[in-house]
Amino acid sequence: MRFIGITGGVGAGKSELLAYIQRHYNCRIYLADEVAHLVKKKGTACYAQLVALLGQEVLQPDGEIDKQKMAARIFGDEELLQQVNGIIHPAVQDYILQQVALARQDGTVELFFVEAALLIEAGYKDLVDELWYVYADVDARRKRLKSARGYAADRIEGIMGNQLSEEVFRTTCDFVIDNSGELADSYRQIDKKLEAFTWRE
Q1: 74-117 tens-digit pLDDT
Q2: 3-state DSSP assignment of residue 13
Q3: Which of 20, 67, 140, 173 sits CB 3.0–4.6 Å from 136 for a disulfide?
Q4: Share of the chain above pLDDT 90, in %
Q5: How many domains are there within the chain?
Q6: What is the pTM of this model?
Q7: What angle do CA 65, 114, 137 make, to 5 degrees?
């Protein structure tokens, strides 16, 4: 089983490409954002640490952490953000590595993918068998974020400005998918890369 990390800038189209891989290959896919939601659930060690750090005011009436309240509590406080990331990122990584170990043990999938914008920053290069970079030119990303998510221009520039440079992505990753144009072209790049693995119609 190959353990593959997929990363790239916001609006590069990672979700579309993963949906294609999910349809056509014998794989398991985890999105780090979704795992982050799971590890913050009431009763987990991560939950207890976050509530101790941020206080009861970030909780919903049912006792779960309220995403908006947590974001408001952290907003503008770089030190607090670092502390929160220092709790969540290791918990996400532990969860994913447990799932990888289980998948290797049961031997039913050929490919195991984890997707996150921050895989490089979170140290996944040393954990995965391969790191893939989904690239799309800046204009394509701007258009996608505006049409698909309704983001305003200043928000788009702010997000992009906080991400790693293209040079860092390219020099760190083992494989680059150019997703600037038609999806069919990106699919061909994936199929060529994964030609040794089982194809499913």
Answers
A1: 988 999 999 999 999 999 999 999 999 999 999 999 999 999 98
A2: coil
A3: 140
A4: 80
A5: 2
A6: 0.90
A7: 100
